[in-house]
Design brief:
9-stranded antiparallel beta sheet, globular
């Protein structure tokens, strides 16, 4: 009988307390030894390479001659690879990123022979509730993990279910993923150590299930002598060297139906820390990841798919490369910000590459789509807005070289839209001052294309005679954007002057101006485009209605809110719909942080700074003025200076008495008709060892929060986890460290605090939407309840062992001065006090990424003035992705977030030959009901289902 199932493995953090190249150099040595051992010793039956394939790429870049050997070992089942591309933190990355991670890892592992079909995540810092759905979407029915299960999950196996009913059997690494890392390589001792491991898990084991012995740990190679030692100890029958997947298969029949069941996320600190402070460490990383994910998922991919339907080639290779750069920043020690500074410097380069590729893909596709539309430019500049998502109405912006007097946008059919020029960047500057012969000017004119030269748009051109022989040409150029100037017409008028007898010199002078940003609000068709013309309103025309948008001394007002500023720079908001006043919204609160990159840790004696300081005693500390007055959007600028402690005191138990200024500028914007207040905070951080949060007081108590998650909305108790007494056994990981339960939680995109005033029985909610912030807390104190959103943490150590919030180290005690986040920091968020909570996923999608607006020359496309290539209709559905498959079909993904079964209707501009539901990996599930005319199809959707619809168009 097999009593011990030994899985030799390594856990390979690609970058962490050393740089990627340092760890790669170690990886080459480790893998050389693993390969040589497996090839030389047939009794060493198996080794697991950490469930990720990127380390194979890293190794083969320096050992390309070993590829065939690796393929042979994988194909023979001697080496486990995949299913992931990188070992991610699954809480901080997007759902689409997890899907692409698995898809790339499965494909890569397949090139080596076979994939390990286990969702192996041994060291991620907690887990999302939808992970079983994602794994099931790739045919994976089991998982292996260590961090996150709570006290009720007390067996080595449990069933884990997602909201949609997907289930995986979890092999719980209750004793850590390195419980057998230190097996003695001598026959006299190994039996005793194995028996000790068996005793540690007494009560957690299941009858008939062998003890899982994980023979490996971080950055370790192979115990070459293991088979010989087991044989010498007489353990050849009792101890099996095998794979992790083999362990699950061997145990599956013995696992009883009575094993613990779990539904939802896994974020308990009962046996093992989940290092919750990582959610706000090195905040710039979280913001970059979310922004580039949005750029890829909501712009580059759907725009490229839409353009391909109109005849453009689909840039699959460029998209794959952009995704690869992004995924390489998503290993848990990378995206969590808990590595040395050099690691995160490398991440900046990878983010830049991912962003640059995605931006070019999106820009090219948007221009291609815009070029298919038509718009008359005889009265102004042609503007095209392209929407790579479901139908929407909201504020859009574009750049223009010049804006006419009394500007207005006109759509097809004569509908008019209000226009607002909001900014101009750059002072006028001399661009060129050159003299040419007339023949040279003709050559120079050939460099002008559609009124544009060297990425500058010609806004105006005038001629004058400096003398009988010198013609002066003055050009006014603006940085990009649309211009109504008729360059071709001006050329036709000017050419006769070049033929004037006696002309010898052309004096050309160009003045360069910054671009203007123009706002307008309009409805946009789903997955389509709409053209407009920017022109002047005629004297006898009535301008378009703009709704109620007013500004005054220190206030903004629209149909939903009246917003003014308190003395401390926070917002006083009157909710007109609910007739309720909210005070103190967005108050900045600075507190000490003696923690590390893993954990927030407050000083024993702290100085909380939550009020700015006036420059003079009698002046208001927050200085306010209106910077935008409408008609599309109004904005307040709030400037305030805080004095915050420079750092911790020398003994680290309090904060220094010395202070430094923390200058803040906040822009608060309200659009006509908008139900959210948009904010931008710019903070100059010169201090160390602190945390800054934005606080939002609630009119009543809040028992549960509702936060955006991955393919779901997550409801959580506002109180910290209550831990029962920990068991005597702790496991390798919890022996190293224990974490105090925290009240801070992660969120993706939005967090809502539903509140109730017990005295009056009145209830409501307050929601914050964010572009990048990932951590919140519902706080009780001083007789009121507040929602706090972390803007940033400043810490200076990778890990410390002297914390109150966590015992022991979580990493290596290395200084990380760049994690202090000094310099200018920018945060964007929006507040709503009158949102329907069920609408928050759609609200965040609208806030996350606006449609693309293209400004270009006269449009003579063949598709008319409005285009909608695709649409889907169904209550509670949230868009996730639109791509092209390898077989040139469209792949549309969305998910149901309300928990209601229903039917989604897909509509197509082109005829569809077939529509079918597939798994996330493209495996067909069922044919959709295609209408007789081929223009629509119906798809049945289960509660909380992630739906992928593959569409074959004619």
């Amino acid at each position: 009988m097999t009593r011990f199932w030994i899985v030799p493995h390594t856990h390979w953090d690609r970058e962490w307390y050393r740089s990627f190249q340092d760890f790669r150099w170690m990886l080459v040595d480790a893998l050389d030894r693993i390969i040589e051992t497996l090839c030389a010793d047939a009794s060493f039956s198996h080794f697991m390479l950490d469930g990720q394939t990127v380390i194979l790429d890293d190794y083969l870049a320096l050992r390309p001659e070993r590829r065939a050997t690796l393929q042979g070992l994988v194909a023979a089942g001697r080496l486990s690879v995949g299913p992931w591309y990188v070992q991610p933190d699954d809480i901080l990355v997007s759902g689409e990123a997890l899907i692409r991670n698995l898809a790339r890892g499965m494909a890569s592992a397949g090139t080596f022979g076979k994939q390990m079909m286990v969702g192996y995540l041994p060291d991620s810092f907690g887990h999302i509730g939808s992970l079983p759905s994602i794994l099931a979407g790739f045919g994976i029915t089991s998982a292996g993990l260590m961090r996150g299960p709570g006290a009720t999950l007390d067996k080595v196996f449990f069933q884990w279910s997602a909201k949609d009913g997907s289930r995986v059997l979890v092999a719980y690494l209750i004793d850590g993923y390195g419980n057998g890392a230190e097996l003695p390589m001598d026959a006299a001792s190994i039996t005793g150590v194995l028996d000790e491991l068996l005793a540690r898990q007494e009560g957690a084991l299941l009858p008939g299930v062998p003890l899982l012995v994980m023979n490996g740990i971080d950055h370790r190679s192979i115990d070459v002598e293991l088979p010989r030692v087991l044989a010498a100890a007489g353990l050849s029958v009792e101890a099996t060297i095998g794979s992790f997947a083999g362990y699950i298969d061997a145990a599956r029949d013995a696992v009883p139906d009575t094993i613990p069941q779990w539904h939802g996320e896994l974020r308990s600190v009962y046996r093992c820390p989940i290092t919750v402070g990582c959610m706000s460490t090195r905040q710039w990383i979280k913001g970059e990841d979310q922004a580039i994910s949005a750029l890829l998922e909501r712009r580059a991919e759907p725009l490229a798919a839409m353009a391909s339907l109109l005849g453009a080639p689909y840039p699959q290779a460029a998209l794959d490369l952009s995704w690869q750069y992004l995924l390489l920043n998503q290993p848990h020690d990378s995206i969590c910000g808990c590595s040395i500074d050099a690691v995160h410097d490398d991440m900046k380069y990878r983010y830049a590459q991912a962003r640059g590729l995605a931006a070019h893909i999106a820009d090219d596709a948007a221009r291609f789509i815009a070029g298919r539309l038509s718009a008359s430019s005889s009265r102004g500049a042609a503007i095209v807005a392209v929407n790579p998502g479901p139908a929407r109405t909201g504020v859009l912006s574009f750049t223009a070289a010049d804006v006419p007097d009394r500007p207005v946008l006109e759509a097809a059919g004569g509908e008019l839209f209000a226009v607002q020029a909001v900014s101009e960047s750059g002072e006028p500057a001399l661009f060129f001052d050159e003299k040419f012969r007339p023949a040279q000017l003709r050559l120079a004119m050939g460099l002008v294309r559609n009124g544009e030269i060297m990425s500058y748009r010609i806004q105006d051109a005038r001629t004058s005679w400096e003398s009988d022989t010198v013609l002066r040409v003055d050009l006014t150029l603006a940085e990009g954007g649309a211009a109504s100037f008729d360059w071709n017409g001006w050329i036709a008028e000017t050419m006769p002057l070049l033929n004037r007898k006696g002309l010898s010199t052309i004096h050309a002078v160009g003045m360069r101006f910054g671009k203007k940003t123009v706002l307008f609000a309009a409805g946009m068709p789903a997955f389509g485009a709409r053209s407009f013309v920017l022109r002047s309103l005629k004297p006898d025309e009535t301008g378009p209605g703009t709704g109620l948008l007013r500004t005054g001394r220190g206030f903004l007002e629209n149909e939903c809110y009246r917003v003014s500023v308190e003395r401390d720079g926070s917002l006083r908001v009157y909710d007109k719909k609910n007739k309720r006043l909210h005070r103190g919204l967005g108050r900045l609160v600075d507190a000490g942080d003696r923690g590390d990159e893993y954990s927030f840790d407050p000083p024993g004696t702290d100085r909380i700074i939550d009020r700015p300081r006036g420059r003079l005693p009698l002046l208001r500390p927050a200085r306010t003025h209106v910077t935008e007055q409408g008609p599309v959007r109004a904005t307040l600028r709030i400037e305030a200076d805080y004095r915050v402690p420079v750092a911790l005191a020398r003994d680290r138990t309090s904060r220094s008495r010395k202070t430094v200024p923390m200058h803040t500028v906040r822009f608060v914007s309200l659009a006509a008709g908008a139900s959210r207040i948009e904010c931008r905070a710019e903070i100059d951080n010169a201090a160390c060892d602190h945390r800054v949060r934005a606080h939002f007081p609630l009119p009543g108590r809040c028992a549960e929060s509702e936060a955006g998650g991955t393919f779901e909305t997550v409801r959580r108790d506002c109180r910290p986890e209550v831990l029962p007494p920990r068991p005597a056994r702790g496991g390798v990981a919890s022996d190293l460290s224990q974490e105090v339960p925290a009240a801070t939680h992660p969120f993706t995109g939005f967090v809502a605090a539903p509140w109730t005033d017990a005295a009056s029985g009145i209830h409501g909610s307050l929601a914050v939407l964010s572009r990048g912030s990932r951590e919140f807390e519902i706080m009780e104190g001083s007789g009121r309840t507040e929602l706090a959103v972390t803007l940033f943490r400043s810490v200076g150590w990778l890990s410390r062992a002297d914390l109150v919030s966590r015992t022991g180290h979580a990493g290596i005690d290395i200084p990380t001065p760049a994690a202090q986040e000094q310099g200018r920091l920018v945060f964007e968020y929006a507040v709503s006090t009158c949102s329907d909570l069920s609408r928050l996923p759609a609200e965040w999608e609208d806030y996350r990424c606006a449609p693309v607006v293209v400004t270009q020359a006269p449009l003579m496309g063949e598709r008319g003035d409005t285009l909608s290539l695709l649409d889907f209709e169904g209550e509670g559905m949230t868009f996730s992705s639109l791509t092209r498959t390898s077989t040139s079909r469209l792949s549309l993904r969305f998910f149901e977030h309300k928990g209601t079964a229903g039917t989604v209707t897909l509509r197509f501009e082109s005829l569809a030959r077939a529509v079918r539901k597939t798994r996330l990996d493209g495996t067909p599930l069922a044919d959709a009901r295609l209408a007789d005319d081929g223009r629509s199809a119906q798809v049945d959707v289960a509660p909380f289902e992630i739906v992928t619809a593959e569409i074959e168009l004619a």
